[in-house]
Amino acid sequence: MQITFAVKPPFPCSQPLPLPYKERQLLGASLGSKDRGPCLGLQNPQGSWSHYGTTFPSPTSALLRQPARTLWYDRPKYVFMEFCVEDSTDVKVLIEDHRIVFSCRNGDGVELYNEIEFYAKVNSKDSQDKRSGRSITCFVRKWKEKVAWPRLTKEDIKPVWLSVDFDNWRDWEGDDEVELAQVEHYAELLNKVSTKRPPPAMDDLDDDSDSADAATN
């Protein structure tokens, strides 16, 4: 395969040509190992690419990643997200003011990756995540409270792996104090739950609270 440069390099191609990352990804993925020259960078034994001392992930490994099935629902102060992955390892959750980045490996060693631009700004410093044997749950604090989110994503496009958690979705007007107590209770339950049991639904917390009140009375 022959590569034609728009501008002829002013120097011999003994050093990697500073191609943009996306172009290098596309070229690296389309060329066979024999066709990859030093102009595309130096390929490491692990499959990643070095370019002027900077190491980038292999284009092939990026293509093998899969999104994790994700559930979400809306409450007055929080947006709840659940990444449904059993026996997860190497879990990484990054919550920023406008997006969340999630990655892990499932029980079969498959790499999972989700990146979501939020519908609205969130308070990343007051958000948290908890892990169980069946999923990773994120409590994302809204920047503007008591403002309903019609969707989770910034763009009005629904990925196939993202669904509304209808088991926990409900009308929440005047429910903010109850919600805050449930967040704390839910986080506490996740710390205690067995690694082989699924986390409880939010509606189960109401039953637990009623049982506790009845026992007290």
What are the main properties of this structure?
disordered N terminus, 4 helices, 11 strands, 3-stranded antiparallel β-sheet, alpha+beta, Immunoglobulin-like, 217 residues, disordered C terminus, 5-stranded mixed β-sheet, 2 domains
Word description of this protein:
By secondary structure, the chain is α+β, with helices and mostly antiparallel strands. The chain folds into two domains: 21-63, no CATH class; 66-208, Immunoglobulin-like (Sandwich). It contains four helices and eleven strands, in the order αβββαββββββββαα. The strands form three sheets. The protein has a five-stranded mixed beta sheet, covered by helices on one side. The longest helix has 17 residues, at 176-192. The chain is globular and about 40 Å long. The chain starts with 20 loop residues before the first helix and ends with a helix.
Brief rundown of the structure:
With 217 residues, the chain is an alpha+beta fold. It has four helices and eleven strands.
